[in-house]
Write a structure and sequence with these properties.
Helix content: 10-25%
Order of helices and strands: EHEEHEHHEEEHEHEEEEHE
């Protein structure tokens, strides 16, 4: 199976970083967010990727094209016919990556719609280009197959942005909880889709709006609950 990564958004909430690079190329621990997502998938044997680029797609292209140079020791022989000898065997060398420029203004569902031709008519994973998590990809896929629906999304319960005060009936403070885990579940990405998803998409679709809502109405959307890091 292939993993589709939505990496074309403007990243406006990280503007100090994304003035010069797309959000998936912002680094964590010296590696782009995009690398961390791909590394998660490849750990579970998923090594075939389709990256839906858009905003500043040239940054992602240059990173991919020069990946071996940037991450290996090498010897460059300049005499006669130039030759490059790489000295490191990269684990990423087993990855196959298709880079599709899906447009700067295209919405999430539209990006998926545009890369249908690269999916070989198969089921596929899909996630956002800023979605770093320790999702168990094997368990996610097993859950999807068991439920036999067109789509599965991974959900998480985020930590509240604010501390919460528990108040007694006499208005005295009973307890103060510093940024507790929220009760509700939210969409964390890490989808699994059957080819039937394309019946719900067009080039202008926003995945999180009509497509997912319509899938839910038709009982074709499952929620995989992730309790780990996100």
């Amino acid at each position: 199976m292939k993993a589709v990564i939505l990496a074309g958004g403007l990243g406006t909430r990280l503007r100090e970083e994304t003035e010069i690079k797309p959000k998936p190329m912002v680094e964590i621990g010296g590696k782009p967010i995009l690398w961390h997502i791909m590394k998660t998938y490849s750990t579970f044997g998923v090594k075939d990727f389709v990256i839906c680029a858009g905003y500043k797609s040239e940054v992602i292209k240059n990173w991919l094209i020069n990946f071996e140079f940037l991450n290996s020791d090498f010897t460059l022989k300049l005499s006669g016919k130039s030759e490059i000898i790489f000295h490191d065997k990269l684990t990423e060398s087993e990855w196959n990556v298709t880079l599709a420029d899906t447009g700067q203004q295209t919405m999430t569902g539209g990006r998926i719609h545009k890369i249908k031709k690269y999916l070989d008519g198969q089921s596929f994973f899909c996630t956002y280009g800023d979605g770093v998590a320790d999702v168990d990809i094997s368990k996610l896929l097993d859950f999807h197959k068991k439920n036999k629906r067109i789509a599965t999304l991974t959900t998480v319960r985020p930590t509240s942005r604010f501390g919460v005060i528990d108040i007694n009936s006499d208005n005295s403070v009973d307890h103060f909880r510093e940024k507790p885990q929220a009760d509700g579940w939210i969409n964390a990405g890490y989808f699994v889709f059957e080819q039937g998803i394309f019946d719900f998409l067009n080039e202008n679709s926003i995945l999180e709006e009509e497509p997912l809502a319509n899938l839910a109405l038709k009982n074709q959307l499952s929620a995989f609950k992730h309790e780990g890091f996100w």
